[in-house]
Specification:
By secondary structure, this protein is mainly beta. It has one domain: Methylamine Dehydrogenase, Chain H (7 Propeller). The strands form 7 sheets. A 4-stranded antiparallel beta sheet has the order 1-28-27-26, with no helix packed on it. A 4-stranded antiparallel beta sheet has the order 2-3-4-5, with no helix packed on it. The protein has a 4-stranded antiparallel beta sheet with strand order 6-7-8-9, with no helix packed on it. The chain starts with 15 loop residues before the first strand and ends with a strand.
């Protein structure tokens, strides 16, 4: 998969490329079109679409507002279609028209709780919606009736589905939720997907719709999952600050957050590096060395707090951390008090471009098979571009 090169000037000395303060409220989800010229974000009960042009502030392009409750997620297909889902238990597919507007079509989700996450399949002809109804709805267009319909995956999901991700083959669907499980299901839709796609899959031989292919129990909330399809590996992050990597042979590796704070998002940089982010408000890079995953470095964090003594690097003891950095806990407490009282961190305390939790990471630009720029959105209403 390739991504358009960023239209912003590169700065080798700084990880932060651009910071866009787009709305006053939180951004729960964002996405781009194929050439990175359009940006869509969630904003309360609306989806806002912006045009990106050079180093200037994104320009408002369209407002999509058919939902009557908070829009929880948005995604854009390779064809430019936008799908949104909301706490109002509905999803809409927005078809781009020649005059620059979007035509909404209601999706028949048939769920009785909030829709929480949504992802287009790589081919752009179906998408999956997770929900608090303990259901994943796999949706596709039915030409005979001219509407979007859904098929449900229910068992053995026991709680809210927090995250979804399609394998590049468009059949395997990974999910994670508040029941502490990472699961891989078959999203095979008869008449839409070809059986030949899974002919040589290491994950199995039969993939009827909704069948459970793999299941991994972690115990904490699973906030994000991400495939590395060429390696047949799946990475996930959890509320206790763990990054986990598992393959089709059920080999599992885990590494903990250097800050001890929960992760909410991740993205594969290449076959041996993963970028994570969450409540520490800055991205954290992990790298695989000698088949072991370890903390590599912090992005967008003051140098004084990036030393091994202050990051809680694996191998450092709690006693040493307290001795060499006695203000670590105090500064963290002060930071969260600032967030609680003012909704933001004061200038002298802020160490990163984001001043609230990062909830999503996306690849923005790629070079020679490696992601070189990453986009993030957060509860502070910002979208930030990083050099990796």
């Amino acid at each position: 998969m390739s991504y358009a090169a960023a239209k912003f000037p590169s700065n080798a000395d700084k990880s932060v490329l651009s910071v866009f303060k787009l709305i006053k409220g939180p951004i729960y989800s964002h996405c781009y079109n194929a050439d990175r010229s359009l940006l869509a974000i969630t904003s309360d009960n609306k989806c806002l679409v912006f045009q990106l042009s050079g180093t200037k502030q994104p320009r408002m392009f369209a407002t999509l507002e058919n939902h009557d409750k908070v829009v929880t997620a948005v995604d854009m297909s390779i064809h430019g279609r936008i799908v949104t889902c909301s706490q109002d238990r509905n999803a809409y597919v927005w078809e781009p028209l020649s005059d620059g507007t979007y035509k909404p079509t209601l999706v028949l989700l048939r769920i009785n709780r909030a829709a929480t996450c949504v992802k287009w399949a790589p081919n752009g002809y179906k998408f999956a919606v997770g929900s608090s109804a303990r259901i994943i709805a796999v949706c596709y267009y039915e030409h005979d009736n001219n509407w979007w319909v859904s098929k449900h995956i229910k068992k053995p999901i026991k709680s809210t589905v927090n995250c979804l991700e399609w394998h590049s083959n468009g059949v395997l669907l990974a999910c994670g939720g508040t029941d502490g499980f990472v699961r891989v299901f078959s999203g095979f839709v008869k008449g839409l997907d070809s059986k030949d796609i899974m002919a040589n899959s290491p994950w199995g031989t039969k993939f009827p719709f909704g069948s459970l292919i793999r299941e991994y129990y972690h115990g904490d909330y699973i906030h994000a999952v991400e495939w590395r399809s060429n390696l047949e590996k799946l990475a996930f992050v959890t509320h206790n600050g763990t990054l986990g990597i598992v393959d089709h042979q059920d080999h599992l590796q885990e590494v903990n957050s250097p800050d001890g704070l929960p992760f909410r998002a991740l993205v594969w940089i290449n076959d041996h590096e993963i970028l994570c982010a969450g409540y520490s408000c800055h991205p954290v890079l992990f790298a695989e060395s000698s088949q072991q995953w370890k903390f590599a470095k912090n992005l967008d964090k003051a140098a004084r707090s990036s030393s091994p003594a202050t990051t809680g690097q694996p191998g450092a003891t709690g006693d040493a951390e307290e001795e060499e950095n006695p203000t670590f806990g105090i500064s963290a407490l002060r930071k969260f008090k600032e967030l609680d009282l003012k909704g933001k961190v004061s200038t002298e305390q802020q160490e990163s471009a984001h001043d609230n939790a990062i909830v999503q990471l996306l690849p923005f630009a790629e070079s020679n098979g490696q992601v070189v720029q990453v986009s993030s959105c957060g509860l502070d209403g910002k979208v930030v571009l990083y050099n990796v």
